[in-house]
Design a protein that fits this description.
Blueprint lengths: L2 H5 L1 H20 L22 H16 L8 H4 L2 H7 L5 E7 L10 E6 L6 E7 L7 E5 L8 H4 L1 H13 L4 E4 L9 H18 L4 E6 L1 H12 L6 E5 L4 H10 L3 H14 L7 H6 L13 E6 L7 H11 L5 E6 L12 E2 L4 E2 L1
Parallel strand pairs: 4-5, 4-6, 6-7, 7-8, 8-9
Antiparallel strand pairs: 1-2, 2-3, 3-5, 10-11
Length: 348
């Protein structure tokens, strides 16, 4: 029996991360004055460290990892976001929850500021309370926008914010490092935010809602963490690999900027980090999409190739949990204006 099989992939990765942290701490330790109370251990550390023991542990982990069978790995666990989680020494830290001021924000809207458990980067989200028994809508903004988009972009506000409020749904609008398209760090941050909302705000289930870049991020997260969400409304998207390949080859400067920005968030291109993008590919892991999904698309979208969207529709065809709605003659924004019941996830 392999150690991974006994511990589970996540448990094995956590142990490997623990050993790695011990090694890093030993490398950082420098000789210095030691008090009597602390005699026998490095100053500033709460336990004795044994460099030889840490080295042996790392060697053992290396031998064990060599015996792993990649073909048996769960797609969600093969993503490097698991490595991020293994390296987190502390959970996400919420540093403040304050009223969000301004005429655009309904009374009760709060700004949640937090530090990521991945790297300590500060980010924020907006939360509008509702009936916790209703589905919490998690709004993922489009490319080169921020978490305030659903409040400040007037057409999105009129169509979606009014429906969310009318249905008494709690709303969590997330920033997630700007235009990151569910990079490993953004993925870990969203998982932590959802857990915070469950534990601190009483949210019970989550429906991801996003258009364009937000739709790509929503579907990528659904592939990685289907256990975290109840449903997805994706308005105008195709597989993340096809989307970024189309963008970088386009003559449109905005699309080229999009590809460059996302590649920077991932730390490499499609060729340099193929495992990261494949882990988020709907076409590669359509079997993981077991939650209700509504995918909308404009027939004449000039920013996303509709032929690639139709490949997702074909891969999901016949599933009772999937609805594809294509708007004849519709452009890029046409996918946003489809009336959907946010509780039952049915077209109206």
């Amino acid at each position: 029996m392999r150690v991974e099989a006994f511990l589970g992939t996540r448990g094995f990765d956590r142990i490997a991360g623990w050993l790695e942290r011990i090694a890093r701490r030993n490398r950082r330790v420098r000789p210095g004055p030691v008090s009597r109370a602390a005699k026998g251990r490095p100053a500033g550390r709460g336990f004795p460290l044994c460099p030889l023991g840490a080295m042996c542990g790392l060697l053992l982990a290396g031998v064990l990892c060599r015996g792993a069978d990649p073909s048996q790995a769960d797609p969600s666990q093969s993503d490097s976001s698991v490595s991020f989680e293994a390296k987190q020494s502390e959970p996400m830290s919420v540093t403040s929850v304050t009223p969000q001021r301004g005429a655009a924000y309904p009374p009760g809207t709060e700004r949640i500021t937090y530090r990521s458990a991945v790297d300590g980067v500060e980010d924020w989200a907006l939360f509008l309370p509702g009936d916790p028994a209703r589905s919490t809508i998690v709004y993922l903004h489009g490319s080169f926008s921020l978490a305030d988009q659903i409040f400040t972009r007037q057409d999105v506000r009129r169509f979606w914010l009014t429906r969310i409020q009318a249905g008494r749904h709690p709303l969590l609008s997330v920033n997630l490092r700007g235009t990151a398209y569910m990079s490993p760090a953004a993925t870990a941050d969203l998982t932590d935010l959802l857990r915070y909302c469950r534990n601190a705000l009483g949210c019970r289930r989550f429906v991801l809602l996003g258009g364009s870049g937000g739709a790509s991020s929503a579907m990528a997260y659904a592939v990685l963490h289907p256990e975290e969400i109840h449903g997805v409304i994706a308005m105008g998207m195709c597989d993340i690999v096809a989307r970024l390949d189309f963008a970088r080859r386009s003559g449109n400067p905005v699309l080229q900027k999009l590809a460059t920005t996302v590649f920077a968030a991932y730390g490499g291109t499609l060729e340099e980090k193929p495992e990261l993008y494949q882990a988020r590919s709907v076409l590669a892991h359509a079997d993981r999409l077991t939650m209700p999904i509504i995918l909308t698309m404009g027939e004449n979208d000039q920013l996303i190739p509709v032929a690639e969207t139709r490949k997702i529709a074909a891969a999901m065809k016949g599933r009772s949990n999937f609805v594809y709605h294509e708007i004849p003659g519709g452009g890029h924004d046409a996918a946003l204006w489809v009336d959907i019941d946010l509780e039952t996830l049915q077209l109206r």
